[in-house]
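Ticket #4471: structure output looks truncated?

Reporter: J.K.
Steps to reproduce: submitted the chain below (563 residues) through the standard prediction queue, then opened the result file.
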Amino acid sequence: MAAEEEEEERGGKGPLEAETRPLKKQQEEEGAVAGAASEGGARRGPGGKGGRLSRWRTAAFFVSLFLCLAAVFAFSFVIPCPVRPVSQRAWSRAFAGAAAYQSLQVQDVDQDRVQDVLFAFRASGGTHNSTNRSCSGEGFPPPCAFVAAVSGTDGSTLWEEPVAEDLQFMDCSFQYGDSPGCLVVGKPASLAAIDLKTGNTVWRVTTNLGMNSTVLSPLLIVPDVNGDGVSDLLVFAAVGGEIQSGFYSGMSGEAIGSGGSLRLPGRRGHLMQVTKTGAHYVLFYTANALYGYSLKQLYAVAAGSEGQGGASLKEDPQWQTAIDEATHYVPLLSSGEIRYLMKVPGRSGTDILLVRSATLELLDGQRLGSMWTSDVMPPIQSKPVLGSFTPDEVDIVIESSVTLYRKKVLIVEGSSGSIQWELDLLLGAGTPAPGTLPTADHRSLFLFWGDYQPGHNGTGSEGPPQNLYLFHPSFPNVLLWMNNSTEAIVAFQVVLFERSRHACYVLLTGPQTDSGPGLVVLSKRKLKEDMAGSHVIWLNQLAQDSEQNIRDRFLRMRYRSPW
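Returned output as attached by the reporter:
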């Protein structure tokens, strides 16, 4: 009590009063804070630093908002969005008074992100009225060889160009500088580069490989050896029992050096392989042997003292060891008649498939050693194609002749050579090679021509109708009968016209150049359209699902682009 009384005498407030009057204490504290704020505000005034900062922040906000709205407006209305071309599901183009060459290639000619079709035909004049191109206008006696580019969207003609008196072959994967083009080999021996976008002839030269020479396919696009910044060309031609070689400038077509000569009696074909060290080699095959030459050796022989670019060409120690230095002979494990030589993508590089009449042999692309051999009976009738039966594997599709009118389709595992799937079909005259298309599950669709007649012995005097069948490894017991053709098929190709979509096949039908002119027809058909109306065939005669469910599952398939 004495303490409390003493506190009151000093004018203080005791704890009892503070507890009994808390509202009064809170009001006093709030009043003190408000007074301090008022005093500070009075000191800053309306034109103080805080006010200016607030106005700047407001202005920055509205400027940012205006810029964002302007950007949205520009992208939405001012800057036009790219127009995606509308592709027709199917189209057909007829070329009267023509004969077709067995050449069908696909490139994006008009740069609309849709693949276009390039093919060659022989005629006296162009078939596209707006161009009115003629043989005589280009200095060729009619009829002559034309190359035409046809739009993949609607089948309209993009351009037509007379290219040679007669055509040996063409390659539309050439790149001269930044421009894509087609290389055309004509008869008599001529070499020309065609601009892919316009069809205009960039250059045309007469080869110096001999008057009666026959240029051999394929042309080889080699590294720039003359220093003009454009890839150059290596051309081989058969002259009697010799093979003449010559390098040509990709920029101008001019010969580089005087050419060289190789003694390869019975040569059937060749290909170029690039090793892991960046060395280029050319492999030649005859009926019974394989030979290898480095590009550096070929350039030294063909260009001689006139060529100065050979110093950049390399040789690979492993290939130099595998190839006999004196004879250039490459020893092989299997024996028999060699029919084809082709590249096969491997896990660590590109390997080489040697196709004999009844044997496959895979060579390691780096050391030229045999990886496996596989016996295939009956004899192989055409060049194999590649696909994927197993996800992320590269497998081999071959067709073998059983009789004159019967064939066997085989899918061979690329990693081991074992047979994964096979089918017997009746064989018609002029049946095109199979086609494949990658699917999103990292396998492939397989398409092949023939006539499925189980139990038929394949005898008769005339070939069966040309039926197109589709197969996918996810349905190993199912075939889809897609379409048939009563016309002679010159060329067939399965194409993904747009990236990861628009899966189609292209047919070129009509008379070929070894017969008289007639009606040549180029047509495109969408796979989904034919799938919807297809007929389901059960290979083991035991239906495991309804036909409509099978068709629907094929229709839901997605594709992936090989390019």
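Triage note (M.O.): checked the attachment and the full token line is present. Residues 211-375 form one domain.
Status: closed, working as intended.
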